[in-house]
Structure formats: structure tokens, C-alpha cells
């Protein structure tokens, strides 16, 4: 799965970098968790096999670590995190209290739903917040994300690789989605999460988190918010304006400050990525974000 230059799992001139480097990914990540929870078995899988109730923010950071490694990490790091995820999923089971049956966490249907809810949330939020992502780049992004799906055990050819294919997938699966009690509880947790120990320094600002959580909720598709009914409706034009404001503020933060939200191991992976790219001739003076500018890439790799 290595890229041509072998430096990162996805090349700096990829559509994946253009989407994932945007700080609105934090909104997309939480929105993705809320959307994923609407699949009853997927939600039970999280509820029964993780500490989501105690640390919902921790799940988001673990997802961020996976996404970071299969984007900015070396091909070897991406392969390793994929192997680790597959090994964990292989051992886990889900008990369905309605039927009494047990299901595998790595059931392809569940893996596909989690993947599609996640990547479509990233793409839709970043575009809605104002990132200049054209329709062709959006299609290229979803095609590239088939590689990420392969890391968790899916066959790339079974994964939607364009906006049209993703829309068709959601139209097919929507009748099977519904908010079980655990899903509604999960959304409420995400609106007011418990802070991890290493982020307790942010505790005084925790009241500011609710507007962020609400923004994630209100960015859900209309049909998903209707299913949940957790918060009263607000004009969607105001949600779009809030997303654009969030993007403007967070994208202006220094990279070192922004990365404090990641786990130490994720920060170390990003540091190593900058060093590799810098040694290969990339201009990393403005961090990884600067590499979406073609002028900061070596001429042989420029878009």
C-alpha cells in the first residue's frame, strides 16, 4: 500500500491530505461517531467492547490516531496500525439482546458502515465549512479512502469510491438505521464528555465544549437529527456559518497548539513525518499544513 515516494501512507499531493489537514476534521470526527451510532449493531459493538461511557473523547482521539497514521505515517506505520486494529476486532463479539445472537465486530457490513459514516462526515463537513474541495477532488478522496478501508479488513472494490456511490450506499442502508437507547445516550455523552486525564488542563473551558458538541449534532443530515430528536432544531444556514467560523479560527492556530489535543504517540508520529518529508526536500517550515501548497513540494511531486 506504499505511495510512490514511500514517505507517507498518502502522498502530500493527495485529495486525502487536502481533506484531513483541515481542522474541521474534529467536527467531522464527532459527527461521524454520532452517525455511526445509528446502526444498532455497530452501536452495541462500541458499547459492549469499549470504555465509551467513561471516555467518549478518548474514542475520538484513537480514531484521530488511526486516521493520522494511515495518512501522514510511514507505509510501515500504516500497515502496523491496520494490523493492530484487525487483530483487536477479530477477537470481539457483539451480543444482540433482541435476538440473542452473537455477531463479529469485524463483520464486513459493520466495518463498511463505520467506514462510510466516518469518511463521508469528514468530507461533507470540510466542504461545508468552506474548504475548496471540487466535485472531482471529492470523488478522488473517496476513491483514496478505499485504501483506509483495506487497513481495517475490507476489500477496496466493495467500498464506495465516489460521491454518487456513497449516496447510493446511504440510500440502501438508511432503512436499517435507528437510534437504540445506547445511541441516544452516546450522543448525550458527546455533547458533554468527560475529559481525559492528560487534557484536564482544559477543564475550566469545558462549558465551551457544549456549543462544539451541538455544532457536530446540528451538522448531521436532516434524517439523522429527526431520528435522534435530542436538541431542538435551528436554521441550517446558522450551522453553516458556525462551521465556517470554526474552520477560520482553528485553522489559524499554531500547529504546536493544535496538536496538544492529540495523544503523545500521535504527536510523535506527526513529528517523525515532518522530519522524513523535510529530509526528502519538502518545505516543512509551515508544518504539514503547508504542504497542501504545491510550491512547498519537491518539483518531481508537485501537482
UniProtKB/TrEMBL annotation:
Highest taxon above the source species: Bacteria
Sequence ranges assigned to domain ER-bound oxygenase mpaB/mpaB'/Rubber oxygenase catalytic in this UniProt record: 17-248
GO MF, any single term: oxidoreductase activity
InterPro entries: MPAB/Lcp_cat_dom
Protein name: ER-bound oxygenase mpaB/mpaB'/Rubber oxygenase catalytic domain-containing protein
Organism: Planotetraspora thailandica
Amino acid at each position: 500500500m506504499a505511495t510512490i515516494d514511500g514517505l507517507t501512507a498518502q502522498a502530500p499531493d493527495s485529495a486525502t491530505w487536502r481533506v484531513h489537514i483541515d481542522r474541521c476534521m474534529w467536527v467531522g470526527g464527532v459527527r461521524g461517531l454520532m452517525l455511526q451510532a445509528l446502526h444498532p449493531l455497530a452501536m452495541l459493538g462500541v458499547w459492549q467492547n469499549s470504555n465509551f461511557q467513561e471516555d467518549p473523547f478518548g474514542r475520538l482521539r484513537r480514531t484521530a490516531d488511526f486516521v493520522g497514521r494511515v495518512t501522514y505515517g510511514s507505509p510501515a506505520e500504516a500497515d502496523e496500525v491496520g494490523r493492530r486494529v484487525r487483530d483487536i476486532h477479530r477477537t470481539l463479539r457483539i451480543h444482540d439482546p433482541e435476538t440473542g445472537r452473537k455477531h463479529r465486530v469485524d463483520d464486513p457490513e459493520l466495518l463498511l458502515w463505520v467506514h462510510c459514516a466516518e469518511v463521508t462526515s469528514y468530507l461533507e463537513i470540510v466542504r461545508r465549512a468552506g474548504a475548496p474541495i471540487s466535485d472531482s477532488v471529492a470523488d478522488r478522496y473517496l476513491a483514496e479512502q478505499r485504501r483506509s478501508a483495506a487497513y481495517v479488513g475490507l476489500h477496496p472494490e466493495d467500498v464506495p469510491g465516489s460521491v454518487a456511490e456513497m449516496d447510493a450506499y446511504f440510500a440502501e442502508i438508511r432503512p436499517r438505521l435507528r437510534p437504540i437507547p445506547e445511541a441516544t445516550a452516546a450522543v448525550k455523552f458527546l455533547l458533554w464528555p468527560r475529559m481525559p486525564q492528560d487534557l484536564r488542563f482544559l477543564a475550566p473551558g469545558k462549558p465551551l465544549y457544549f456549543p462544539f458538541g451541538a455544532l457536530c449534532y446540528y451538522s448531521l443530515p436532516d434524517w439523522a437529527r429527526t431520528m435522534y430528536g435530542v436538541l431542538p432544531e435551528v436554521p441550517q444556514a446558522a450551522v453553516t456559518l458556525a462551521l465556517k467560523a470554526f474552520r477560520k479560527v482553528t485553522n489559524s492556530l499554531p500547529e504546536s497548539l493544535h496538536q496538544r489535543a492529540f495523544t503523545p504517540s500521535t504527536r510523535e508520529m506527526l513529528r517523525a513525518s515532518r522530519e522524513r518529508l523535510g529530509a526528502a526536500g519538502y518545505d516543512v517550515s509551515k508544518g504539514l499544513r503547508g504542504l497542501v501548497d504545491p510550491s512547498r513540494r519537491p518539483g518531481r511531486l508537485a501537482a
